[in-house]
């Protein structure tokens, strides 16, 4: 009887090992399938992206892109020139003309308005009314 029980135990251990190996193989197969599905999604995404790029290449030629870049650079240069003018980067001739105009203005006799000789009235500060707020009453919580 003991020999039979040992054989039965050995058989069940071998059966458990085989079952564990099969479960391990199934888990590995499931992981491989999931990874393959992810790979297929990536490949599908690459395929769609490639199709989009091809359509964009059909719509836009290299000459068109170069023309747009050239126009953009021209616009940036034009804006830079405007910024320089607005920022006050004047040439020496402009500064000389400005100085001459300033000298001409300061040389002229300007008529200034008369300043009143009467003393300024004193301002009497008005008393601002102070509001007395009632203090909140403390009520015991019930």
Structural account:
The protein is mainly alpha-helical. 70% of the residues lie in helices and 0% in strands. The protein contains 3 helices and no strands. It is elongated and about 135 Å long. Keywords: Coiled coil, Endosome, Membrane, Protein transport, Transport. Residues 9-36 form a coiled coil. It is found in: Endosome membrane.
**End-to-end CA span:** 81 Å
Task: Characterize the overall form.
Answer: elongated
- Report the helical percentage: over 70%
Biggest sheet details? none
Low-confidence stretches: none
Number-wise, the strands total 0
Query: Rg from C-alpha positions?
Result: 47 Å
Tell me the fraction of residues in β-strands, as a range: under 5%
Give the class from helix and strand content and strand pairing. Answer: mainly alpha
Pfam families: Snf7
InterPro entries: Snf7_fam (IPR005024)
Protein name: Charged multivesicular body protein 6
GO cellular component, one term: ESCRT III complex
Observed structural traits:
elongated; single chain; 70% helix; transport; 142 residues; Snf7_fam; endosome; mainly alpha
């Amino acid at each position: 009887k003991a020999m039979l029980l040992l054989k039965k135990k050995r058989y069940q251990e071998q059966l458990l090992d085989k079952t564990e190996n099969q479960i391990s193989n199934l888990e590995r197969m499931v992981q491989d399938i999931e990874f393959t599905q992810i790979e297929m999604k990536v490949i599908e995404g690459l395929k769609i992206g490639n199709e989009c790029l091809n359509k964009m290449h059909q719509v836009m030629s290299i000459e068109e892109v170069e023309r747009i870049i050239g126009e953009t650079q021209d616009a940036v240069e034009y804006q830079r020139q405007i910024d320089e003018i607005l920022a006050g980067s004047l040439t020496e001739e402009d500064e000389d003309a400005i100085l001459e105009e300033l000298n001409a203005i300061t040389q002229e006799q300007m008529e200034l308005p008369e300043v009143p000789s009467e003393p300024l009235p004193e301002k009497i500060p008005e008393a601002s009314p102070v509001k007395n707020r009632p203090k909140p009453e403390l009520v015991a919580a019930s």
